[in-house]
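Think of the structure tokens as a kind of shorthand, similar to the way a musician reads notation: each symbol stands for something richer, in this case the local conformation of the backbone. In the example below we present two proteins back to back. Begin with the first one, reading the sequence and then the tokens, and try to describe in your own words what changes along the chain.
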Amino acid sequence: MTGYANAAAAGGETNEGAAMAAAPGAATVSVEARSVNGRFLDLALRLPDELRGLEPALREMLTGAFRRGKIELRVATSREVDGAVPMPSSEQLNRLAYQQGAVQGWLPTARPLTVNEVLHWCKGAVAVAKLDEPALDAARRCIEGLREARAREGARLAAILLERVARLRELAALAAPLLPQVVQRQQARFLERWNEALATVQAGAAIPAQSLHERAMAEAAAFAIRIDVAEELGRLASHLDEIERLLKTGGELGKRLEFLIQELQREANTLGSKSAALELTNLSVEMKVAIEQMREQVQNIE
């Protein structure tokens, strides 16, 4: 099933604890997930180098949430680099003063630090925010959003499949009344040709008329059984009942629906091959069209 979702989170705790207020280097992480139709689960992760270590955890999230489809998860980070020079903290200034005194004690001719050098040193010492936890949090929310999007599309697909089920029931209802008429008509035609053949081939043969009649009736009954498709229509109705039950129950249905669609196709093919009347042949063709439409939709359902 197709779907799209995104989520974002801000960088949390830094590597060195709490940094000074309004520190530059604040970071955000954004996660996007896209899903397209697929019979199997195919995952593609696009991660920045700093978050490569999260790939196993992200794959575990995706495999736990989805069973089918080609899913792409893309993670991006952005750091807001402030153009203004930050205000140094007292701890940083004390450390610089102590280090400068120690250096000048050993090297009396060393020049003191300028204000510009002090400010740039403080800016370069800003702690970088950790993004692992924000990235995982954003990924969880994004995956949940993708699940909801796929669920909405699944509901639409289920409605389409139920319409096709209703159409197949209509076609089966049209075919059922035709069966006795078709069987009777074809049986009468068979007996007529049988008698014509006997009149031509067995003329004058010493075969009792009663035996010929019994043999003709037996052959006609066997022929009627061969062209009778009531059993196929019964199995088709049973498969439709199961499909309708699964769609209303919900859950992971893709594999089971695919199997049932194959069974529907088999019954429709048998109906067409055993058909002895144009009316049944036309109904069989319409059934195959509806079943093929169902097959295309079922491949998208998880």
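Once you have a description of the first chain, move to the second and do the same.
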Amino acid sequence: MSNAIHNFLEEKVKPNFDKGGKLEKYYPAYDALETFMFVPGHTTGKTGSHIRDGIDMKRTMIMVVVALLPALLFGIWNTGHQYYLALGEQADFMTKVIYGAIEVLPIVVVSYAAGLGVEFIFAIINKHQVNEGFLVSGMLIPLCLPVEIPLWMVAAATIFAVIIGKEVFGGTGMNILNVALTARAFLFFAYPTWMSGDKVWIGEGTNEAVAYADGSTGATLLAQATEKSSGFVNAAGAQYGDTFWNAFMGFIPGSIGETSTLAILIGAAILLITGIASWKIMLSGVLGAYVMGLIFNAFAVNPFMEVPAHYHLVMGGFAFGIVFMATDPVSAAQTSTGKYVYGFLIGILGIMIRVFNPAYPEGIMLAILFMNVMAPLIDHYVIQANIKRRKKRTLAVA
């Protein structure tokens, strides 16, 4: 069946898009759809990121999307869970999933529609292949946003991130900043009331639900940590029995895909087993955050510095950022030693920003974006150090 479809495309459809065909100028759009369905017989590209292996860039990006599915699926269920928890009502598993899907999937659809629309336009204008990188960015953007974000904001942020964060630098493989975090940063600075503050994020549903949640909960876990309260409370105002366990499992309000550390770790395992992501960045990022947490515990002068170091690893978007965004092969450090330094500094800066900025009790986004800019400098000094060591060995032998 697949061979018949492929032959049909090659013999009947493709000639219309080849040079001289009546749809020649739309060849990039056809090529994107064909290579999405069938592995092409050519490498991904000559500049920026490209794959010279048994799979092409699209298959690599799709594997990352697969790794994101546990976080997406849990985020859909948790959206419904937090909504009915805020109402104080009981709901079965499927009821929560259906509500969550209604809230979450439109955000995913808008992200892909806006981003791929821009990608196709640039590909047709510049007469190059459609960049594959947005297959991942299109999923990352919704997962790092609050569920009640207006759809037009999602579209605006996505278009901004693709144009300003990637296309102006030359497309996939040439951007210096993580595209998804560029979209989130755009929303954070352009519409701060939607992206920051200490109120929990749950589905809008009815005004009654929103009013109940705002009135009964103090704040998100990160914001509550700045207060010397006897314990954390959930979306229904009830105190958690085991805050660390609930945060690890993800039974807390937050951005769509960032709440469940367990789901994120499943995705991390997929990325590591397939060899797509760097374990060096993940490990050093976790160590950097834990070390910074221990230092703050030792010299605590404010409530947030007293938060146990291991709590920082499961709160906010730390785990999601370290696994899926810090490891971006384009904007991260490229050298082996540089990856350790890059990840470790992200961990340190992420917790430092989180602790010292009570107006924005989450620092992983800013930490990763800052280190994206510093990554080439880190690689430069690592390479220079290697050159000096080799030069000394050469002179010693001579």
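Compare your description with these statements about the second chain. The two ends are 65 Å apart (CA to CA).
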